[in-house]
Amino acid sequence: MQIDISRPILDKNERLAAENRAIFDAAGIFVLDLMASPGAGKTSTILATIAALRGRYSIAVIEGDIASSVDAEKIAAHGIPAVQINTGGACHLESDMIRRALSSLDLGTLDLLIIENVGNLVCPTEFYLGEHAKVMILSVPEGHDKPYKYPGIFQIAEAVILNKYDTIEVFDFDESEFRQVVSSLNPKAPVFPISATKGDSVELWAEWLAGRIEANKART
Ligand SMILES: Nc1nc2c(ncn2[C@@H]2O[C@H](COP(=O)(O)OP(=O)(O)OP(=O)(O)O)[C@@H](O)[C@H]2O)c(=O)[nH]1
Ligand SMILES: [Mg+2]
Ligand SMILES: [Zn+2]
Fold first, then answer.
1. What CATH number has the domain spanning 6-219?
2. How far is the CA of 17 from the centre of ligand 3 (A)?
3. Could you give the C-alpha distances from 28 to 4, 46, 57, 111, 171, in angstroms and in order?
4. Ligand 1 centre and the CA of 195: distance in Å?
5. Where are the domains of the chain?
């Protein structure tokens, strides 16, 4: 006999995600799920995005990590509400974790909630959290071949951020091959080369996100 436990887990997750989504829409919040490998620059990109958009939007962050509150402390140091989720071993976030984190946020005041998923290119793609968009970051040092090896995350992302672009001369990263493979997997997703820590070229990405926030406000 074979027991498949993945389906019931995913079904329960989807049900709670739909409830999360109803909460976000009732409060008029746009929610972004940011996915990437460990160290690709999720927290740095969130800080750069906050710097670009905090004058226009009220922002909060949910940080997902297996352990520690290092990332939430980095965000909170900039005066932005940040809630840390420790998964205690799970390599992705699930909807019930997001639901519990929401109770620590003043939802009525927010326009944008950014969720930093656990560093992982695989299972975060399978778990809908109620977000309006999933976006992924690949950093230059990881190599241009990653879309061949992890196609799922490139397919589900609505935009692809190419971070640590300031290091492109140091690595043998073939940007045109990377763009070609990404566009074959996901023709609609824009690719935004940025340097999160230097703040270079963050504007185009931030404007894309602002466009999504405005479109969502107009819809709800
Ligand atoms: N040169 C360069 N370094 C960067 C850039 N963005 C991030 N880093 C560095 O990369 C390291 C990891 O950055 P984080 O923002 O912590 O990455 P993360 O994806 O949030 O990491 P985890 O949460 O641990 O998975 C840090 O040492 C950053 O300073 C960039 O654009 N250029
Ligand atoms: Mg981080
Ligand atoms: Zn996982």
1. 3.40.50.300
2. 16
3. 37, 20, 12, 7, 42
4. 10
5. 6-219
Per the CB < 8 A criterion, the answer to whether 40 and 119 are in contact is: yes
pLDDT in tens, 188-214: 999 999 999 999 999 999 999 999 999
Residues lining ligand 1, judged by CB closer than 6 Å?
36, 38-44, 71, 119, 163-164, 166-167, 195-197
Ligand 2: centre distance to CA 42 (Å) = 5
Q: Which atom of ligand 1 is nearest to the CA of 74?
A: 16
Q: What tokens appear for 119 in the block?
A: 């560093």
Neighbours of 177 (CB within 10 A): 13
- Residues 121-139 have pLDDT tens digits of 999 999 999 999 999 999 9
Q: What is the per-residue pLDDT for 184? A: 98
Binned at pLDDT 50, 70 and 90, residue 7 comes out as confident
Confidence band, pLDDT 50/70/90 cuts, at residue 10: confident
Closest by CA to 156, choosing from 130, 176, 177, 182, is 182
pTM over 0.85: yes
- Strand segments, DSSP code E, in the chain are 30-36, 59-65, 82-86, 112-116, 133-139, 159-163, 191-193
Beta bridge partners of 114: 32, 61
